[in-house]
Structures are given as C-alpha cells and as structure tokens.
Design brief:
three-stranded mixed β-sheet, endoplasmic reticulum, Thioredoxin-like_sf, 173 residues, AGR/TXD, mainly alpha, signal, AGR2 protein
C-alpha cells in the first residue's frame, strides 16, 4: 500500500508541473505580440487597459513592494449603482490615467479583512490603502452614512481623492 501512495503522489507532481509549464509557455507566446490585449476578466470593465491585481493579498504585497498606494473598489455586477459608477470611472480619461499610479483591485466579494468595511459592506465603495498597509480613513466620499460610497455625480471627488492619496504618499513616506 505504501508503494502505491508514492506512485500516485509522483503522478500528481507530474500533472502539477505540466500544468505550470503549460501556463509559463502560454505567457511567453503572448508577450511576443506587439500589444498584448489584457484579459478583461480582472478589470471587470473598470479600465481594461489598466493592470489589475487578482487578490487582496497580492494587492497588499505589490503596494508594499512598489511603494504605490492601493485602490480597492468593492462592487457587484447586478447592482445598478456599481454599474453606473463603473461606467463613468471607465470613461473618465483623467481617472484612467491617474489610476496607472496605483495598485488596483476590484472585488465582487467581501474579504475577511474588517478594515475594508470600516462602516459596513455596502457597494460600491472605494478605499485607499497606503504602502504601510494602512486603510486611509481620511480619504472619504461625501456621504456621512456611507463614508466610502461614490455616486456617478461624485466622480470628480473620487478623482481628487485619488490625487490626495498620491499626495499623502509624498509627504508621509
């Protein structure tokens, strides 16, 4: 019985390494094309040309190591408020340009980190986290009952909050 489990473990390792090799191979071939079209899955329509992280953990890691602030957008596909904000966010040229200076993450599910829901789990909500991994409670929207909510009409406030997040970085770190 002992030998059998070794064999199956060995086969499992082979399968795993094949899967990894296959992924690595795919990446290389994609990089040779002139302008790779990023898969739109991670952007979920918030900015298809921007680089989005896949998980909260990855976003924190990249923020810390790049010393860029992190912007997290919580939203839901079937929420009309989320959809409306996404539309103006994606079409706002200045925001899309400024967003390149951030580590970006949009989530359609809640994380277990309570710091990301300081005043509740409503959507859409946008939080900024600095590279010391502190949620910036001082960068909020205009609603006292939902501090991190933005309506489409608040898009210029969101833009200035993005600028504020970048400015804080220069003065504090």
């Amino acid at each position: 019985a002992m030998e059998k489990s070794y064999v199956s473990l060995f086969l499992l390792l082979i399968v795993v390494s094949c899967a990894l090799a296959k992924d690595a191979g795919k990446k290389d071939s994609k990089d040779t094309t002139a302008k790779p079209k990023l898969p739109q899955t991670l952007s979920r329509g918030w900015g298809d040309q921007l680089i989005w992280t896949q998980t909260y953990e990855e976003a924190l890691f990249r923020s810390k190591h790049s010393q860029k602030p992190l912007m997290i957008i919580h939203h839901l596909e079937d929420c009309p408020h989320s959809q409306a904000l996404k539309k103006v966010f994606a079409e706002h040229k200045d925001i899309q340009k400024l967003a390149e200076k951030f580590i970006l993450l949009n989530l359609v599910y809640e994380t277990t980190d309570k710091n990301l829901a300081p005043d509740g789990q409503y959507v859409p909500r946008v939080l900024f986290i600095d590279p010391s991994l502190t949620v910036r409670a001082d960068i909020t929207g205009r609603y006292s009952n939902r501090l991190y909510a933005y309506e489409p009409s608040d898009i210029s406030l969101l833009y200035s909050n993005m600028q504020k997040a970048l400015k804080l970085l220069k003065t504090e770190l």
